[in-house]
Every structure is written in C-alpha cells, then in structure tokens.
Amino acid sequence: MKRIFLGLVLGMVFLTAGEAIAADSKPVTVEMQTNLGTITLELNATAAPQSVENFVQYAEEGFYNGTIFHRVIKNFMIQGGGFSPDMQRKSTRDPIRNEAKNGLKNSRGSIAMARTSAAHSATAQFFINLKDNSFLDYPGQDGWGYCVFGKVTSGMDVVDKIAQQPTTRKNGMRDVPANTVIIEKVSVSR
User: Do 18 and 50 touch, CB atoms closer than 8 A?
Assistant: First the structure.
C-alpha cells in the first residue's frame, strides 16, 4: 500500500506544467489590456494544454507587456506578441509542439498560435481570427493547421477596432498598423 501511495505522489510531482493546468478543470481567463481597450480570453487547457501553458508562462513572466499587434489583415486576423513598438523581435523560448489536432476551430474570435511554415515552430506569437478561417484548421493545407487554444469572451469590439487600423510597411514587414497598437498588460486568472 505504501508503494502505491508513494508512486501516486511521485507521479503527481512529475506532471508537466501543461498537464497540471489541464488537470485543473477551471478555465484559464486572460485579460489583455491594449491602448484601444481590453480583450478577455478563455483558454482551453483541456484541448491544448501545452499551448495554454506556453502562453500563460509568457504572460506571467510579463513577456507580452509592451509588445504590439504587428500584423493586421482585415477580414482575416490580427497577430501580436512578438515585437516591441520599434519593431524589434523579442527573444523567445524553444518552439512547442503543434496541438492543432484538438478539435478546436479557427472561427471568429478564436485565438491560435502563430508559427512559420514549419508545423512545430510556434513560440510566443498568437493571432485572433476575425472570421471563420476553416482553411487554418487541422489538417490544413500543410497537414497540420494552426492550433486554436482559446476564444475571446469579451472585447470583440476591441479586436474589430484593431482590425480597422490602417496598415503600412515597417522594417520590411507588411500589414503593420500605422498607429501602433500596444499590448499594455496581460493578466492571467486560474
């Protein structure tokens, strides 16, 4: 009996952070304050534990505070979480595994991990869908798709306001808001 109990205790100690969040059935709520208003998100740790834990860790470390929405494409999505207002890319941790095969859809108001053309390249950047973008769902055009890990629960009017910003080119990047949209603070509630 003592061995079984010790095994259970040791098993609990060695849960990954993502598994620990997923084991906690309460939703993870995120408040993202921008210079255009506040967006509230509910993250789905059951469907995307690694993506949620990754996002939460960046948020709790203050990584997102002072970053910008650097890519805005009307009738598609707004992307942020990786650049400073002077368009300097922030250093990130190693990429995470793509969890797009979780049944969540890239529908209007969903938040998903941004990545390069490599399936498992997501780090800190994320995007919020402005419309249903089913072509981004698993398996997508590349056999993977883009991992949705939550949704906007309030502040979609702010997301739409960001989407209406005029864009320009900055530091060789297209679709950058001409008037900087700053993510002032990201707070997490569990």
Answer: yes
